Write the structure tokens for this entry.
Amino acid sequence: MIFSVGVLADITGIHLILSSQEILSPMLWIASGIIGIFQSMLVDRILFIRLVSVYPLRRVGPGRFALVSGLPILLKVVRVINVIIFLKLISDLVHRCGMDALQAYFALPYPKIEWVAQVVDNTSSSYVSIMFLRTVHGRGTPNECFTGSGIAIRCKES
């Protein structure tokens, strides 16, 4: 993912240097943005896995687990649905209606929804990080930290 975003940035940079008079397709910029959105979601998933490792379902119960993990999961689902709808509509507008991709991008509300969702998701990621660090630092020594987690239980069994 990171590699593909870097390659797209290099392609556009080289193209602008060598032939700055030719305009690249806006679809390239949109594709780069979409890949970047999914890339940030994958990075946020790491934070969520950390949170689930210190709040496993069998230790905290379904109610508390839903409270802890509900917001991050809901935000990711909303963002994925928004990106899918956006891609469908922008491809229809460009291919069927002949609209310019840049005009279609700014005409649709979905990029703005994604921007707001990203801000809320970043706040949620801060919440997840704070919950993880509070739990880890509140339990004492590192050996005591994960005694109730699934990882520690599997290590004891083997």
User: Anything to note?
Assistant: The radius of gyration is 21 Å. The mean pLDDT is 76. The chain has seven helices and no strands.
